[in-house]
Every structure is written in structure tokens, then in C-alpha cells.
Amino acid sequence: MARRSAQSHRAAERVRRLVIGPLLAALLALPGSGALAQAQEVVDPAATTEAPAVEETLSPPLKQDPYYTAWLETAQRAENAIDANRASNAALEELRAQLVAYRQTFLESRDRNSSRIETLKSQLSALGAAPAEGTEEPADIAALRDRLNAQMRELTVPAVVAQEAYSRADGLIAELDRIVRERQARQLLSRGQTPLNPAGWTAALRDLTVLLRDVRNETVSSWRAARDLNRLRDNAPLILLFTIGGLILLVRGRAWAERAGGYLRGFGGRGTGVWSFIVSLGRIGLPLIGLFLITRAVNASEAVGLRGTLFMNVLPVWGTIILGFLWLGDRLYSKRDQDAQIPLPAAARSAARRGLLYVALLLVFYRAIGLVETVQTISEASRAVLVFPIIVAASVVLLRLRRVTLIEDTGGETIPAGLRRMAPALRALSLVVAAVTPLLAAAGYQTLAEAIIFPAIMTLALLGAVLVLQRFIGDLYVWLSNAGEGAGDSIVPALAGFALVVLSLPALALIWGARVADLTELWARFLAGFNIGDTNISPTDFLTFAVIFGIGYAGTRALQSALSSSLLPRTGLDAGGQNAVVSGIGYLGILLSALVAITTAGIDLSSLAIVAGALSVGIGFGLQNIVSNFVSGIILLIERPISEGDWIEVNGQMGYVRDISVRSTRIETFDRTDVIVPNADLVSGLVTNYTRGNTVGRVIVPVGVAYGTDTRLVETLLREIANAHPMVLANPTPNVVFQGFGADSLDFEIRAILRDVNWVLSVKSDMNHEIAKRFAEAGIEIPFAQRDIWLRNPEALRPAEKGPAEEEGGDEATEPKRADGNV
């Protein structure tokens, strides 16, 4: 398959040389064709020494473009390397880096004149279609059309060249990545020397002996040279200063950090863990600086050889590993209960800290073996023997940590919820890794074992660092916000944890063997965006859209606030009109902000017209109620049949309008409950508005009096009561109506117009109290219902006829008798 791919690339190259080359040469012969070359820098001439045959295939205009010529030579070398598949990974990576640089340049050149091209297209569109063959158009229009077409060709040529080169570079980069990944996979699954072979032990001992002897000889030679040439004396002050400073920081650095922490806690934040975190950084930072100073002192003395210098240069890195794991253990399993990230018994926390220290030492030993391979060639068998004990020891330490550390869920409430959910998976994976990797290494698959055990350990360390940083952000938020004890459970620490997990993904990929080039390639793909039709949408477009829309949205809200608080209250508009204006401004501002953001970001929505047309059919059927309510909301805001604060009755629900939104209206009933009414019901249904336009309304107070009462007296008293109430309008005058003769009473009604109908219940209550008082003073009776019962067939209630046995004195014995002898 790889052979077929190489053949297809060679065929495509021949087509490019024989067909596309002359075509581009003809286009580049137009005025301004050197814009692409002038805009780019010329590559290093050393990179263009190969593949002279490429220049022979170029037409004269392309030969004048040194950047494009250099690009073709680099592309040819890449294709030759892919076909041969013999170059080292380092050479392929270097070649890939050159291709990435070219690809980025072509990507930027591709869209450089896009806005100008769009302008020319609109100008040509304004001229209309070109005349048909055999017809002529006015000379000035024809000249203008030719000039615009020439400018269009002049601007599109660099874009065409850049697009073709970008596609070629992208394909070559993908093939190089494929070759490197296949090599890595083969190396990972290859079987090497087993460390259990005794012959390898002898080779490893011999290689170590040679290394130590060479380092000793180089150090002795360098020491003598530095002493003989007086370099030690010349650099003595600097060496002494660095050595003393480094030793002081190594010995006293942790104590000074603790003292600084006590001083910092005076600024506040006790109990939040902020200063404890900062002090923990100082406990590892100061000794690390001391270690770096000592390294500088040794290098300044020039008393060690080349190999010794290499070891001294990586000493700060090894110190960072050891101190970093010590810091992680101190934060996760602190000696102080309140600072411990994971609550465990004191003995378990101490064992966990020791286990992390052992892990750090094993990682340092593993890196030391890699450095040994750099400074001196050792056999494969020697390396297998040297690395195997480290793998076994790492598996043992991982098993110990599995029993006593974060994977063991103690059931405490303070254990993070995410950690409790991951505990079973971490427990199982750690057991598998610890059990399998020594077996793989013993069987000869040492590369695979190394690619599992050490990344697994580093993954657990990265997880612990994320937990520590998340807790620190939560403590910092609690301290800065002066919030209470429960503020740490807010959304801010949760969002911070999510962000930390996302940011740790690249580091996790690198831990498990991903190349930096893989991550940069993903980032380049992300920045390149994706195509929707003929429109390319990139993250830059999204960012531009978000910024412009955010500015427009904030401006709209600010304008709404200014209108509702300053301008509209000074006008004659009522509250409902003011709300309608503010809501309309909000909807219009959001719509304009979205349109301006889309236009500024360069997102062409014309390609989505067909999709939008198809979706509109589904919207029409599936969302017709929502659309109906939306349109009804717009009608309510424009016509304003109801406004906020109105007292209305709809669908049997009565209350005050509190909010009118696009989809629904919220009504607060007299029971202080909210009723959400769809806007379509308010537009198409029957709605009673008691306060539309004004608050004047009528109150009706019914009352009944006993038969025989002077009706004129009753009418006079009721009219006096109505006129005396302050909420009743004098014009029109209140009216008293004699309704008729009821079943139990003579029925009257007070009908009066109130200044504010919202007080109708209070007015009715006041009038009823006054009626009861005045009627009692006048001796007028307010009757209550009375009923006379007439039985239609009373004989049905009599007892049944008695038998013969009961006729002989039975009645006399059982029924009482009146004085006259009758029953």
C-alpha cells in the first residue's frame, strides 16, 4: 500500500510538472505575479542543494520566485525520503518541520486577498453577465469589465498557487507522520534481549566499569588542567559564592519557607490553605535554587570532564523530579490533617509519602540510564539488565501505593467525588500494570514494558497535581471572595477543575508517547478550521464572532438600562409602553449584534440557504406552537392590549401581569402564585383587562331586607353610604337599584364607580360594614333564608297495619295515651 501511495505521488508530480506548471507560468506572467514571492522570506540556501532537476521543469516566471523554487526542492526531497524510507526519525522530523513552515506560509497567503477578491466579484456582478457571442456592449463598460477581470486574475493567481502548495505540503506531512508512527509501533512491539540471560549481566557490568573509568579519567584530567592553568584560582570567588549560597539554600531553605509562611498568614486567609500551598512551593523552590547554584559552581570550576558536565547539567532536572514528588506527597498526604488532600490514617499517609519518594528515585535512575546511552554506547543486553530492576521495583512500589494511597477509598466525606468515582478503575489498572510489566520485560518486550509502567506512574502523578491545583483554586476563591465555609462547593472550583483537566490533556498525551509534532499538528488543524460549503470557519472566526456579539449584547443591555432608568420615565409613556420600548430595543439590538458579528467574522451563510430551507419546513410543523407564541409576543409588545401591572382575567385565571416575554406572559394571582400563559392565548382568546388605559372601575354591593321594610328608607341609607366612601366618584353619582322581590328578602344593589378598581374588595368590605351598622340603627332587618316543609303524603310515615295477635291490647301496652284517651 505504501508502494502504491509512492507511485501515485510520483504520477501526480508528473502531472503537476507537465500541466499545472505551464498553466501557472502563464498566469504568473501577468503584472503583479511576484506578490507571493515578495511577501515571503527566502529559505536557507543550504536547504535547497538537492534535487536540481526540479528547476529544469520550471518555467521562467516560476524560476524567478526563489521561495517557490525552494519549496519545490524541499517537497521533492520529502517525496524521495518517503519513497526510500531509509532516513532516520530525526532527519524525518527535521524535514517535517520545514514542511510545516511552508504550509503555514501558504495558509496565510491563501486568504490574503480574499476581501479584495470579494469586492471585485461584487463589481463584476454589478456589471451584469458578459454579452453573448456576436453582440457588443458599450466600449466603456467593456473596458471596465476587462480591467476588473485582469485584476481578478492577478489576485487569484497567488491564492491558486498557495492552495496547491498547501495541499501538497499537508499530504507530505501526513505521510511523514505515518512513517514515524509505524516505526514507533514496530519498535514498541519488537522483542529484544531478555534480562534473565546471565550473559547480559556480564556485559552490563563491563559497560558500567568502562563508563566509571572514563568519567574518572576525564575528571582527573580536567582537574589537573584547571589547576595548572589557574582556572580554579581565577574562578574561586564565583565558585565559593555559588557553593556557599547553594549549601545554605539546601540546608535552610525549607525552614525559611516555613517562617515566611507564618509571616504571610498574617495577611488573612487562615484555614483556606492558600498560604500553606505557597509555603509548600517555597519548600521545594529554595532547595532547587540551591542545587542549581551548586551545579553552576561545579561547571565554573571546569574540574569535570565532558561526561561529568553532562551529568551535572541534568542534576537540576533530577532534583526537580525528586522535589516535585516530595511536594506532591506533602500536599496529598500532609502530616497535618487539615492540609491533607486525601484523608487517610497517619501511618498510611507516611507510607504514601515514602512511596512517592521511591517513585521519584526510580524515575531518576531510569533517566540516568538514558543519559548513559547518550554519553557511551552500551549493548542492548546491557540496557535490558540495567532497566529490568527499575521496572520490577516500580511495580512493587505501585502495588504498595495501591494499598495505602488515593486508590483506596476510605469512605470519608472529604474525599473528592471525582476521585471516589475513579477509584475502582485506578485500582484495577494499577494492579494490571504492576503485574504485567515485569513479565513483559522478562520476556524481552522491554520497550513495551517501559512504555506502560513509567507513563502509568506519571499519569497518577499528573492526576494528583490536578487535584492539588483544583483545591488551591477553590481555597483562593474562598479567600478572595470572603465567602463562607460552603463557598468551596460553588461552581468556580468545579469550572477550574474542568479547565485543569482540559489543560492536562496535552501533557497526558506526551506522557503516553505522543510527539510534540502530533500536538502541533492537531493545533494547526484546529486553527485551519473546517469548511461548510465554500466557507471556511476557523477558531479565529468564532472568537471574532464572540467578541463582536458580546460587545453588541453589552451595549444593548446598557442602552436598555439607560432608557428604563433615565430617559423613558421622563416621557409620557406609561409603564407598559416603557416596557414595550425596552423589550423591542433588546430584541433589535441582539439581532443586529448577531448580524454584525456574522458579517465581521466573514461567515457566509449563503451556503446554508438550502439547509435552512429544509429546516424551515420542520420548524413549521414541529415548532408551530412556539412560532405562534413568538409572533403573538411581538404583537403584544406592539399593540399593547395588556401591559405589565394590568389586572386581567384569562382562561379562568385572574391576576396582575408581571412579565411579558417573547414566548409567554407571567401572571401573578391574588394567591401569590405565578401562572404562565402562552402568548397565543392572550392574542386569540378572550381576555378581560380591568385596568386597560385607566384604573376606574365599578363596584356592586348587593343587600337584602325583610319584607315589610320601607323601601325608600333603604334606598336613602344605601345612597348615603355610597356617597360617603372616599373611593367612590361623585360623577357619575352612585346608584341604588331595587332589584326585585326575592324568595326571602327585598333585593337592593349599590352600583358605584371607583377611582381605582384595584381597591374593589376593600370598598365592598367597607360598605358592608357600614350597611350592617346603619341598618341596625334604623331597625331594618336583614333576613336569612327560612323554609316551611309540607309533606305531600304523610300517610307514608305511619306504621304498617298490625296482625290479629297484636290487636288484643297490643296498642294499649305499647303506645302512650293522652288524657282524653286518644292516641
Protein topology:
Layout: H1 2-28, H2 35-39, H3 53-57, H4 60-63, H5 66-84, H6 89-110, H7 114-127, H8 139-189, H9 198-228, H10 231-234, H11 236-264, H12 274-301, H13 306-332, H14 346-375, H15 380-404, H16 417-442, H17 446-481, H18 491-511, H19 516-528, E1 530-532, E2 535-537, H20 539-567, H21 575-601, H22 609-622, H23 624-639, E3 647-650, E4 653-660, E5 664-669, E6 674-678, H24 679-684, E7 687-689, E8 697-705, H25 711-724, E9 735-741, E10 746-754, H26 760-778, H27 804-807, H28 810-814
Antiparallel strand pairs: 1-2, 3-4, 3-7, 4-5, 5-6, 8-10, 9-10
Helix pairs in contact: 5-6, 5-8, 6-8, 7-8, 9-15, 11-12, 12-13, 13-14, 13-17, 14-15, 15-16, 15-17, 16-17, 17-18, 20-21, 25-26
Describe this structure in words.
Belongs to the MscS (TC 1.A.23) family. It comes from Antarcticimicrobium luteum. Residues 162-219 form the DUF3772 domain. The chain is α+β, with helices and mostly antiparallel strands. The protein folds into four domains: 2-129 and 138-189, no CATH class; 222-235 and 302-515, no CATH class; 623-692, SH3 type barrels, CATH 2.30.30; 694-823, Alpha-Beta Plaits, CATH 3.30.70. The protein is built from 28 helices and ten strands. The chain has helices at residues 2-28, 35-39, 53-57, 60-63, 66-84, 89-110, 114-127, 139-189, 198-228, 231-234, 236-264, 274-301, 306-332, 346-375, 380-404, 417-442, 446-481, 491-511, 516-528, 539-567, 575-601, 609-622, 624-639, 679-684, 711-724, 760-778, 804-807, 810-814, and strands at 530-532, 535-537, 647-650, 653-660, 664-669, 674-678, 687-689, 697-705, 735-741, 746-754. The chain has a five-stranded antiparallel beta sheet. Strands 8-10-9 form a three-stranded antiparallel beta sheet, covered by helices on one side. Strand 5 (664-669) and strand 6 (674-678) form a beta hairpin. It is elongated, with a radius of gyration of 46 Å. 23% of the residues are buried. The model is unreliable at 1-62, 406-413 and 807-823 (pLDDT under 50).
